[in-house]
Amino acid sequence: MEALLSLAFDNLSSYDGPKVRKGLRQVEGLLAQICLSNPKPQTTTTATTTTTMAANGSSDDGGGGAEEATASGSRKDLAQLSRDPAFREFFKLQEGFEWNVAMRLIGTLDRLMAKGSDGQNDLLILSALDLIQGVLLLHPPSKSLFSREQNMNLLLDLLEPYNCPAIQSATLLTLVVALIDTPQNTRAFEALDGLLTVTSLFKSRSTAREVKLKLVEFLYFYLMPETPSIPRAGRRDSVPPLLQRSPSKLAGAFGRGGAGAGTQRRRADSEVQCVLSTDEKQELLSRHLSSVEDLVKDLRNCAPFGGAVC
C-alpha cells in the first residue's frame, strides 16, 4: 500500500494535468477497493491484493480503476470494513505525516486553484474535493487539518462567485464533512468569516439555484447543536491503539468496551468550551442573515437530520 500511495503522491504533486488526474484516479481506486466487497465470498481481500488491484486498475490516462472496482463488488458495511486488513493498514498509515492522503489532496487542491479556471482544471478540483470527503469519512482524525487557517481558507475561496456552481456545491458538501463532530473546525470557519462568505453567496442574485439549495441545507446543518470532537472509545486489547482514536460510531464497529468504556470518553475542558448550542449559533448567523428564526423553527419542527434540536 505504501508503494501505491508513493506513486499516487508523486503524480498528485505534479503541475501537469494528466499526471494529477492519474494520481487522483489511483487514490480513488485504492479507496474503492477498501470500501467494496469482493464478489466471491470465499476470497479474502488482503492489504496486498487491494493495493495490487488498485494499482493495476489505474491506466496510463488515469481512468478505469474506480469503475472496475465498483462493478466488481458491493459496498461493505461498517462491521465488515473494521475487519478488513486493507482498511486497518490504511487507517494506520493515515496517522503518520508521510502517508496522510488528506494532506496531499489539500496540497493538490491548492496548486489546482492557483492554475485558474478552465474546464479540465475544474474537473480535477471536483475530483479532489470528492476524494477529500471520502478520506475524511474513512479517517476522521484527518479532519483536524481543517482547523488550520490556510486549509479552511481553501474551501472558503472555492465558494467565491467566480467558481462554477458544481465546484461551489461540492465545496459545501466537503465543508459539511469537515465540520461534522469537529467543533474546533467550526470555530475556525467562523473566525475566518465563513458565515459572511456563505450568506453573501446565498443572497447574491448571480448564485445558481442548485447552489442556493445546497446553501440552505448547509445553514440547517450549521444550526444543529454540537457535540465534542471525535470522542475516544474505551480501550480494547483486540483493537490497535491508533484505531481506538476513531470516533464512537466507527470505533464501535471494532467491538464494544466493558462497563468502564463510557467513563473513558471524557471531554477535555477546552473541547467543551468550544461547543455552541443552536441558540448561540443562531445569534452568530443573524448578524449576516435575516429570518434565521424561521430556519431554527423549521429545524426544530421537522428535524431534517433525524436529531433533536434543543
Number of strands: 0
> What fraction of residues sit in β-strands?
under 5%
- Number of DSSP helices? 17
The average pLDDT is 79
User: H/E element string?
Assistant: HHHHHHHHHHHHHHHHH
- Report the end-to-end length measured between terminal Cα atoms: 45 Å
Rg, please? 20 Å
Quick one: biggest sheet?
A: none
Low-confidence segments:
39-47, 56-63, 231-249, 251-272
Helix content: 55-70%
Overall geometric form: globular
Indicate the structural class: mainly alpha
Region (Disordered): 39-77
GO biological process, one term: cell division
InterPro entries: ARM-type_fold, Cell_div_Cdc14
Keywords: Cell cycle, Cell division
Descriptive key words:
ARM-type_fold, Cell_div_Cdc14, 310 residues, cell division, single chain, mainly alpha, globular
Q: Can I get a quick summary?
A:
This protein is 60% helix and 0% strand. It is an all-alpha fold.
Structure description:
With 310 residues, this protein is mostly helical. It has a domain at 148-252 and 271-310. It has helices at 2-12, 17-35, 47-56, 65-72, 78-83, 85-94, 101-114, 119-138, 149-158, 165-179, 183-191, 194-203, 209-223, 248-252, 269-273, 278-285, 292-302. Helix 2 (17-35) packs antiparallel against helix 3 (47-56) and helix 10 runs parallel beside helix 13. The radius of gyration is 20 Å and the shape is globular. Residues 39-47, 56-63, 231-249 and 251-272 have low confidence and may be disordered.
Question: How are the SSEs placed, and which strands pair?
Answer:
Blueprint lengths: L1 H11 L4 H19 L11 H10 L8 H8 L5 H6 L1 H10 L6 H14 L4 H20 L10 H10 L6 H15 L3 H9 L2 H10 L5 H15 L24 H5 L16 H5 L4 H8 L6 H11 L8
Pfam family, one: CDC14
GO biological process, one term: cell division
Protein name: Cell division control protein-like protein
